[in-house]
Amino acid sequence: MSGRAAGDHNAVETVNHLLLCYGGGPGPNAQGSGTERKGPLSTVAIARGSNRRSPDLVSKVRPDADETLRIVHARLDDMKAEDTTVIDLRTQSTIGDYMVVTSGRSNRHVGAVADQVLEGLRGAGFTGLRVEGLPHCDWVLIDAGDVIVHVFRPEVRAFYNLEKMWSRGRAAARQAS
Hints:
By secondary structure, the protein is of the alpha+beta class. The chain has helices at residues 3-21, 43-50, 65-78, 107-123, 154-160, 162-176, and strands spanning 30-31, 36-37, 82-88, 98-103, 130-132, 139-143, 147-152. 20% of the residues are buried.
């Protein structure tokens, strides 16, 4: 064997030993107690064994619900969203702290408003935002964790009437007292 081939063989044997000792477990070619293995590992297994990466750092602290609401509200004002309503969910539900319901004048305006809200939230360090409805732009839902944003076309907003559904509990509480 040449010097390089011997070195490659030693590297393969080292990876084999490490994988067997640290959870690789006995493979189909293992013998005895599972600590010996005949034959080299495949190229894929060698790549997996040597390509260890350090864990990612803990993410930055996300803004709280009030700061998130401020960012959303500022972007809605910048984009001239209409009839913006903020519903306080802190005492009603665990899905979030606030729900923002607003309207755009057309599909294009709804999409532009939603894009600007997303841009503002990403600029503040939000990751993993969930968005539904952007392709059609009749109703775009943005889930920013503690704040849920609904951007509607006026006709769609009137049809679903989310404000009435979420204010029903408060109206019943007022009548009872």
